[in-house]
Amino acid sequence: MTVQIFILIAGLLLILLGANYLVDGASSIAKRFGLSEFIIGVTIVGIGTSAPEMVVSFMSAFQGKADMAIGNIVGSNIFNVLGILGLTALFFPVATDRKNMRFEIPLCIGVSVLLMLLAFNFFNGNPAVISRPDGIVLLAVFAGFMWYSFYRDRKSTVTAEEPVAEDKTPLWLAIVKVAGGLALLITSCDFFVDNAVLIAKSFGVNDAFISLTLIACGTSLPELAASIAAAVKKNTQLALGNIVGSNIFNITLILGLSSQVMPLTSAGITAVDYIVMIAAAILPMMFGFKGKIGRAGGALMFLCFIAYNYYLITNQIS
């Protein structure tokens, strides 16, 4: 147990180091190619920090553990918004703009609702399963989101009156920072999750609980580290883009691909979990309509995260 705890701490430190490299490299690339910090957060940082969720969900699908494949995504999305964005806004108010509020955040809400409808087979009434056709729908949404995000961002950059800030970091160094940061994040996250699961299993808890809590929080540590690192560097748009992008990718890309490996049937993830995920996606819209998510909104989101985990723990014990 002592060795496992030591590995957990070491993994966390490596995650923080990897996140710092990732944010620095991603910001340099964004400025060099005229992309906004929000878009680079949604794409490079968002996909990169979602890599641990992809690994866990793929492996769970291969092993026939749908509760872990789906619970990992649902739990991660809840933690990303209520835990990470809430904690970030509590210390560093997160800026929002009209584009975020009109497209990315509503899309995050929409795909969260879509996932719940697919999980409970609202469209066909069959036993609860995310089938291969369902996964293709999710992948189509992912492709459309990526295309429109880049198209809109490039269009707005061309028409912008203010010049993009110059960045003197060599492109090769920025790419090395992004690649190295991602490698550190994924590797250290793997160590963290493996040891967290071993510790949890020793207490006799089930797969659904582990996936919604320990694995979800563990695989979301890159998002936490990247968001805090971005906020400290006053790149709060990158932090918001990281969270929103990760949540969209988790549902559309990861579950879309995982369902192609094997249709995902899950009884352990309840309607309450999906409803909390949808509510979490709505909160940034509620708190950010004045141009920023302030400390009060961040505190309330983080309190909701604590309350949800209290519900999970008491439900597990009972």
Q: Please, could you describe this protein's structure?
A:
The chain has 318 residues and is mostly helical. Helix content is 80%, strand content 1%. It has a two-stranded antiparallel sheet. Helix 1 (2-32) packs across helix 9 (221-232), helix 4 runs parallel beside helix 11 and helix 5 runs parallel beside helix 10 (236-261). The radius of gyration is 19 Å and the shape is globular. Mean pLDDT is 80; it is low at 160-164.
SSE inventory with pairings:
Elements: H1 2-32, H2 37-49, H3 51-62, H4 66-91, E1 94-95, H5 98-119, H6 132-159, H7 171-201, H8 207-219, H9 221-232, H10 236-261, H11 271-287, E2 292-293, H12 295-317
Antiparallel strand pairs: 1-2
Helix pairs in contact: 1-2, 1-7, 1-9, 2-10, 3-4, 3-10, 4-8, 4-9, 4-10, 4-11, 4-12, 5-10, 5-11, 6-10, 7-8, 9-10
